[in-house]
């Protein structure tokens, strides 16, 4: 077998892993959920849960992948041979396959909006007209399928080139560009008349608006925004050399994710409040509200183009990781089979995603369990598969990996203090499972 690939540098791994984490959850989902849950208080609770839940789970996946240096299924087999625990890896593959099938649909929407904005088709419309444009765009079967395929094509081409030459090189360009564009957008947004009301909304907690729903949604958001629970980070960390510090890498990725979430809020809410619009507009915030905001600003559509570009970068870097986990398992880490399997699996994901792409048009009236195919896939992944995967990982690591071996693995490349290790182990073994179960019970309507 050919030698297994590795990241060429610490920075390459951190940017790729951060790119996996920073996607639709951070830029598209966080602003509208925060807008619906009072802003500042939600943001603060989200940060707490990211540190208590997301960080321990992220580090747990790192220890699995780096200690075994193998793909997602083989990693669990090596740690717990002769058991069924490798089904966590299979669950991660299935979850990523389904997730990318409808994620690519939203990626396609970003591409068509970018194209329309560059053409000037979105200039000077009213809020109602933007809503009509969005509805007409996503209901057009030809356009929806073409842009979904284009998004998957870019993903396939990058993953087919490999870990270093594909994913790492793309992430090294896209992630710094994302930060730079975001900072420019934030500077523009906070200098608008009335923008400080939006800054206050995001950064000043109003705990009178906090309900049990707010707490549970913040918990769920912290958990989904780091790409934990699907063994993507098991796969990415398996390409790491033993000299890399896992704790520092995890902290860096969580820190970058929180910064991007903050920048997303500072780019969106000041502009929304300055225009007198509704911050709790829901999932259409990006595609309906933001064009209205930017179209009324000097050079506003140029800033909207910049926003769409960074949004596309974030979506693509997450898509790379979803395809990579499946390709790495099927090709068994052999670079020679990567290109073929990237195409086969990528095209299969596109085909499976066709009903999702058509869910707002010709298949809009077809419902399964009361949901469109797109909504059913989203619900299945977000509310069942990802929480279940995270729960199993939180149970697996303390149960099947010896505590001394875990400490030794986390010590490699770092000087982790025993007290910090014990804190992480406690959070992973006791706190994370309870929080995850609480999220699952909530989304399943048990309470």
Question: Could you outline the blueprint of secondary structure elements for this entry?
Answer:
Layout: H1 10-21, H2 24-36, H3 40-68, H4 72-79, H5 87-119, H6 127-139, H7 141-160, H8 163-190, H9 195-203, H10 212-224, H11 232-237, H12 246-274, H13 289-295, H14 300-330, H15 335-357, H16 373-400, H17 403-411, H18 418-443
Helix pairs in contact: 1-8, 1-12, 1-14, 2-10, 2-12, 3-4, 3-9, 3-10, 3-12, 3-16, 3-18, 4-5, 5-7, 5-14, 5-15, 5-16, 7-8, 7-14, 7-15, 8-12, 8-14, 9-12, 10-18, 12-13, 13-14, 14-15, 15-16, 16-18
Structural write-up:
The protein has 447 residues and is an all-alpha fold. The protein has a single domain, classed as Amino acid/polyamine transporter I, CATH 1.20.1740. Helices cover 75% and strands 0% of the residues. The chain has 18 helices and no strands. The chain has helices at residues 10-21, 24-36, 40-68, 72-79, 87-119, 127-139, 141-160, 163-190, 195-203, 212-224, 232-237, 246-274, 289-295, 300-330, 335-357, 373-400, 403-411, 418-443. Helix 1 (10-21) crosses helix 14, helix 4 runs antiparallel to helix 5 (87-119) and helix 9 packs antiparallel against helix 12. The chain is globular. Pfam families: SNF (PF00209). GO terms for molecular function: symporter activity. The chain crosses the membrane at residues 12-34, 40-64, 85-115, 143-163, 175-203, 223-241, 253-277, 297-320, 341-360, 380-399, 420-441.
């Amino acid at each position: 077998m050919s030698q297994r690939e590795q990241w060429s540098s610490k920075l390459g791994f951190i940017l790729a892993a951060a790119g996996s984490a920073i996607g639709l959850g951070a830029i598209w989902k966080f602003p509208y959920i925060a807008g619906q849950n009072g802003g500042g208080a939600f943001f603060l609770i989200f940060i707490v849960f990211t540190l208590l839940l997301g960080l321990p789970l992220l580090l747990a996946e790192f220890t699995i992948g780096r200690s075994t240096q193998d793909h997602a299924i083989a990693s669990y087999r090596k740690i717990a041979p002769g058991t069924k625990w490798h089904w966590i890896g299979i669950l991660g593959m299935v979850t990523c396959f389904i997730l990318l099938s409808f994620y690519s649909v939203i990626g396609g929407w970003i591409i068509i909006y970018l194209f329309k904005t560059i053409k000037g088709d979105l200039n000077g419309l009213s809020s109602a007209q933007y809503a009509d444009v969005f509805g007409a765009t996503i209901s057009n079967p030809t356009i929806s399928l073409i842009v979904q395929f284009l998004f998957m094509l870019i993903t396939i081409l990058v993953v087919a080139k490999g870990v270093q030459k594909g994913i790492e090189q793309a992430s090294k360009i896209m992630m710094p560009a994302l930060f730079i564009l975001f900072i420019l957008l934030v500077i523009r947004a906070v200098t608008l008349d009335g923008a400080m009301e939006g800054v206050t909304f995001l950064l000043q907690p109003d705990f009178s608006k906090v309900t049990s729903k707010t707490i549970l949604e913040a918990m769920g958001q912290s958990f989904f925004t780091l790409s934990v629970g699907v063994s993507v980070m098991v796969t990415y960390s398996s390409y790491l050399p033993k000299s890399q510090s896992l704790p520092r890498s995890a902290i860096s990725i969580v820190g970058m994710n929180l910064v991007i979430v903050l920048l997303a809020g500072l780019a969106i809410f000041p502009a929304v409040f300055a225009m007198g619009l509704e911050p709790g507009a829901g999932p259409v915030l990006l595609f309906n509200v933001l064009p209205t905001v930017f179209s009324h600003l000097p050079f506003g559509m140029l800033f909207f183009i910049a926003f769409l570009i960074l949004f596309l970068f974030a979506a693509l870097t997450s898509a790379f990781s979803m395809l990579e986990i499946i390709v790495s398992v099927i090709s068994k880490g052999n670079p020679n089979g990567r290109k073929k399997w990237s195409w086969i699996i990528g095209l299969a994901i596109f085909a499976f995603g066709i009903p999702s792409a058509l869910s707002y048009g010709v298949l809009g009236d077809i419902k399964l369990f009361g949901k469109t195919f797109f909504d059913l896939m989203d619900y299945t992944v977000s509310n069942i598969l990802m929480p279940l995967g995270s729960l199993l990982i939180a149970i697996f690591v303390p149960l099947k990996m010896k505590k001394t071996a875990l400490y030794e693995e986390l010590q490699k490349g770092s000087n982790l203090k025993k007290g910090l290790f014990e804190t992480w182990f406690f959070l992973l073994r006791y706190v994370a499972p309870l929080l995850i179960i609480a999220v699952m019970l909530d989304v399943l309507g048990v309470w």
